[in-house]
Amino acid sequence: MTRPRILVVGAGFAGVACVRRLERRLAEREAVITLLSPFSYQLYLPLLPQVAAGVLTPQSVALSLRRSERHRTRIVPGGVVGVDTAAKVCVVRTISGEYVNEPYDHLVLAPGSVTRTFDIPGLTEHARGMKTLAEAVYVRDHVIAQLDLADASNDDAERAARLQFVVVGGGYAGTETAACLQLLTHNAVKRYPRLDPDLIKWHLVDIAPRLMPELGEKLGRAAMDILTRRGIEVSLGVSVASVDEKTVTLTDGRVLPSRTLIWTAGVAASPLIGTLGTETLKGRAVVTPEMCLPGLDGVWALGDAAAVPDLAKDEKGAICPPTAQHAMRQGKAVADNLVSTLRGEPLHPYRHKDLGLVVDLGGMDGVSKPLGVELHGMPAQAVARAYHWGALRTNVAKTRVMTNWVLNALAGDDYVRTGFLASKAGTLKDFEYTDAYLSADQVRSHTASFRGAIASGGS
């Protein structure tokens, strides 16, 4: 008897949680499990700002998918660029640039999200992101390079421009990025005696009227106070009008001479979802409470890419926010429902009450709301780090992260660049491959042989 083929797309929190649960609950004879991901690691995304700041090494937040006693999942190193749901085939672009077809009986879509951008002149050409491990490493190199170049320059205007940094996005990613990188430059300038510390300026810009509104007004003000005390200028109700190589123009008319724009203004579901032809809600696939895609046999969607109904809220039409805690639990829930499907058992809807949010602002600062309890300062930071440390999937990762935290606290940073993409300005498109997806016609051309087999009654 042929074993059912389960394809899981994406190695984020949702995809990895699903695969690990399937490996635990299914015997090898029951199914063949394949994971489709460009990288053989799970990125612990909430700690990326600390990688950019040099507090953590890149390896410490990249959790190997192969370090598991139960590991039997086949890992295909590539990204899914199209799905033919009629032929039940995924088209995969491997890391070598080749296209391969992967047939499935059950498809779990957890491709995650990409940085949300807008039609702003110069944005995609000049903005840096904070969504991938490579971007975090690149941003660190870029910021340190600006200090190096400013220190070497004899031009006052150039020096001032290189020491002015702009971060767009007042959510968790943007706030943590601005806070952690400001600490990086604040500490690094002590190694640059030719630089005036007062020339280093950080701007945090967001179109929303409040900073991190999900945390509530009180904690939002506490975060604002922490950033302001450090000298970060926070501009709310403002966005970017245009950007070029040397300036960032804001919608309130200000023109900031700057060589650094870090864009963290939200996320959008993976473009893969838009190629399916299924119903979407703000770009996310509309799914049932059991996370099935209506009208598509054997297809499930979860995580950032799916609009999963939030049954724990009384609010009609509420959907789960794109957070790690939901993604991990949804992955396990989909795995359980998949097992139930294979064994002819009833499915169960996903339900999880939000446990709260934590924000690590670096140093001794943070703002957190665990289980509704509002904290700020050192207690909040302790809770944030304890939560992240506990959420790391392997003991090796926990050891690496704790060692990095202790070493950084005791010895500080050496502020060295790796030279990553030194001769090229890395853009959002370079790192996130948002233009790699195929049209429906292109997908069908890749899967024509499978469609022919189905039409002729083959398997």
**Residue-averaged pLDDT:** 92
Read across the widest sheet, the strand sequence of neighbours is 7-6-5-2-1-8-20
Q: Tell the overall outline.
A: globular
Summing up helix and strand content along with how strands pair, one would put the structural category as: alpha/beta
Helicity level: 25-40%
Number of helices: 14
What is the distance, rounded to the nearest whole angstrom, between the alpha carbons of the first and last residues?
A: 13 Å
Strand content: 15-25%
List low-pLDDT spans. none
Computed over alpha carbons, the radius of gyration is 23 Å
Tally of strands: 24
Largest pleated sheet:
7 strands, mixed
Provide a descriptive summary of the structure in words:
With 459 residues, this protein is an alpha/beta fold. Helix content is 33%, strand content 22%. The strands form 7 sheets. It has a 7-stranded mixed sheet. β13 (240-243) and β14 (247-250) form a beta hairpin. The longest helix has 20 residues, at 133-152. The model has no long low-confidence stretch (mean pLDDT 92).
